């Protein structure tokens, strides 16, 4: 989209002059703060894009809460739902969701019926698949929002299991259906642009998928996909489609631009900076979250006092098996200490870890690596997973501190 | 097969009385030694099965050679080629190999033509997919030969790239072909038993597959699959089919009992001891070798002198990316030291590592964990990958030593 189109769109959407001046790259005087982009957000969030709303949580805010409050939870919108730029909820009553595709009895239903169906609650890490993208620049910059670590949070969703809905509606899914493709009420900025939708494996959707109505014990904020968000615990955030209004049963993944080539990584490593022609065979969508850890303290660039320093943070994966160990190194990987690990109730939530390390005066690095029970670990050099759009960064986390 | 059948078979095969008394479990007086089972083998090899020939290399022999000599290289035969129980070679002249399946110009050729085609040499770890099976017993014993670590070796194969043969014969492979299924001249013990064959992905076979005629610079010994073995570097040994006489292009993997349910692991972890109904969808064949390391010194049960002790061994994976780090722990994983790592020329060969650790008097454990550049590591508790037939063990290696 060129600048003129962008401005026209903004005008059509009836937004104020302040927004017109803003973008993720130009932070001039008058750049809107997070609460001006999404009503109700904490103004201390980092604004990457004020048009659709792309907000990052600084780690010093994120680490203060076991469950990330809605006010500071990151936002990554591809498209805008005009009434969605607020933390206020939208009532599900009168919100129509259609069931389409490989099903004998295609139909539509009012989302208000979800309120009366059995519900489940799941605590989980919600993470943008671009989170950490900026670190790929250690090898070669990847295109897209240059997230540090704040494109993630730990939240609790509550809603109706997808399987329960399928049973309630007595849907006769054809045996050949292998994927479920979910679309939201948000629309692309132009008629020519492809509408955002994502496919996930049907079997896993029936096992884990939730039509979420609540987050952290409150009605789901509009900005986070209310009234109904399709939640897939353990999957990257983008697969948790907001503002659900169409659910399609498919024999194959959607050919939508946002399923291929976007939101996809090569099956095998490629050279940083190289081009890649994405096919369904040579690549896979941003589905299961890779094992990852983040250092909450000390923060990168911080000054700490020499001696025994408490290092702490969180680690998580796709929830398939627990995190088994978190190792910390203060000598660039020559030796490692196993941190104390605390397991959450939910396999999809973050695990806390902490350990003391002895630091002497000078510029020091702290490295952390998580490994799960399947032996899936963070690569020491995360740029091995470089991909043109910079998804799924999961390299060993590194902070540099000044020890005084 | 019950005992009577087994004996009958042995008689039919015209083998001596000494062999009748032998098995991997009963080591009575008169049990044949390795050189009696396979002519030319080192008698110090462990005999697991004297009927088909299943021999394990003790680590104290294995570690003495950079390239594992034919005399001590492990043997795992599923079936017997009567003339194959010797380290002597078999001449390729007059050895007919047929090309079948999804190919326009199915045909047969004399293996002697391979001698005049361009050849390549590859150093690689050859490893039985059951290697390490005995360690699953930490959770629950898995059925099959109770291998320790000696079902592996590092060898050099030389032969004609599969792709070169395909081009030489001008094979017109149909576009739908996705797998290549290889069968050997060896036969099952009864007409009712399924003949041994394996399928590998066609794309990888064209990229890496070799029709090997030599091992370690000599004509391929009959016992190791001579005159022609289908070698797939980075794949488990079982996929390196011996005594090749049929090559079939397939749209799908073979339904042969040895491709499913044998030589297969579940896609997702299952509880140790549980049953599993293998399907093509819920499981995968023993193709790519998992990242793994083995401690060569000190050996399990050895006595060592207190002080700085040299710990050394090897590590390897499927050759897709290099081994990135090898970590050693002497306090059951609380702290780890990164070992010195030496990279081989070939990505498929073993990597040597070594480090000194300080050991005080008492019963001590040494643990080692390898991690590759993709972040694929050995699970601390290898039994997480438990599967009914005990394939693909790759847990952190542990030796117990007495420090005096």
TrEMBL record, chains A, B:
This is Probable sulfite reductase. The keyword Metal-binding applies. GO terms for biological process: sulfur compound metabolic process. GO terms for molecular function: heme binding; molybdenum ion binding; molybdopterin cofactor binding; sulfite oxidase activity. InterPro entries: Ig_E-set (IPR014756), MoCF_OxRdtse_dimer (IPR005066), Mopterin_OxRdtase_euk (IPR008335), OxRdtase_Mopterin-bd_dom (IPR000572), OxRdtase_Mopterin-bd_sf (IPR036374), TAT_signal (IPR006311). Residues 1-28 form the signal peptide. SUPFAM superfamilies: E set domains, Oxidoreductase molybdopterin-binding domain. Keywords: Metal-binding, Molybdenum, Oxidoreductase, Signal. Its cofactor is Mo-molybdopterin. Residues 90-253 form the Oxidoreductase molybdopterin-binding domain. Pfam families: Mo-co_dimer, Oxidored_molyb. It comes from the Bacteria. Residues 288-393 form the Moybdenum cofactor oxidoreductase dimerisation domain.
């Amino acid at each position: 989209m060129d600048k003129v189109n962008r401005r026209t769109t903004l005008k059509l959407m009836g937004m104020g002059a302040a927004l017109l001046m803003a973008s993720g790259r130009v932070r001039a005087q008058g750049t809107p703060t997070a609460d001006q982009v999404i009503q109700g957000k904490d103004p201390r969030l980092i604004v990457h894009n004020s048009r659709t709303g792309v907000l990052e949580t600084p780690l010093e805010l994120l680490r203060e809460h076991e469950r990330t409050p809605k006010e500071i939870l990151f936002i990554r919108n591809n498209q805008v739902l005009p009434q969605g730029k607020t933390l206020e909820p939208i009532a599900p009553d009168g919100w129509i969701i259609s069931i389409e595709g490989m099903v004998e009895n295609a139909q539509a239903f009012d989302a208000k019926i979800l309120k009366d169906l059995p519900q489940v609650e799941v605590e989980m890490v919600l993470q943008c698949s671009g989170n950490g993208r900026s670190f790929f620049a250690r090898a070669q910059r990847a295109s897209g929002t240059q997230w540090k670590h704040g494109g993630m949070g730990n939240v609790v969703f509550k809603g109706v299991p997808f399987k329960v809905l399928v049973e309630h509606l007595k849907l006769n899914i054809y045996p050949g259906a292998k994927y479920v493709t979910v679309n939201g009420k948000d629309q692309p900025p132009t008629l020519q642009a492809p509408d955002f939708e994502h496919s996930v494996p049907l079997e896993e959707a029936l096992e884990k998928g939730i039509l979420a109505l609540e987050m952290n014990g409150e009605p789901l904020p509009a900005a986070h996909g209310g009234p109904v968000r399709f939640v897939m615990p353990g999957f990257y955030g983008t697969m948790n489609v907001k503002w659900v209004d169409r659910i399609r049963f498919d024999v194959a993944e959607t050919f939508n631009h946002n399923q291929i080539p976007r939101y996809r990584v090569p099956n095998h490593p490629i050279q940083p900076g190289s081009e890649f022609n994405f096919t369904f065979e040579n690549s896979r969508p941003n589905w299961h979250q890779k094992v990852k850890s983040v250092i909450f303290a000390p923060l990168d660039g911080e000054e700490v006092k020499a001696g025994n320093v408490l290092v702490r943070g969180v680690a998580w994966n796709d929830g398939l098996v627990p995190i088994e160990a978190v190792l910390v190194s203060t000598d660039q990987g020559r030796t490692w200490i196993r941190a104390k690990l605390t397991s959450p109730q939910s396999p999809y939530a973050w695990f806390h870890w902490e350990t003391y390390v002895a630091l002497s005066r000078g510029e020091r690095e702290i490295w952390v690596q998580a490994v799960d029970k399947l032996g899936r670990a963070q690569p020491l050099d995360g740029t091995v997973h470089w991909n043109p759009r910079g998804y799924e960064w999961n390299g060993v986390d590194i902070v540099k501190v000044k020890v005084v």
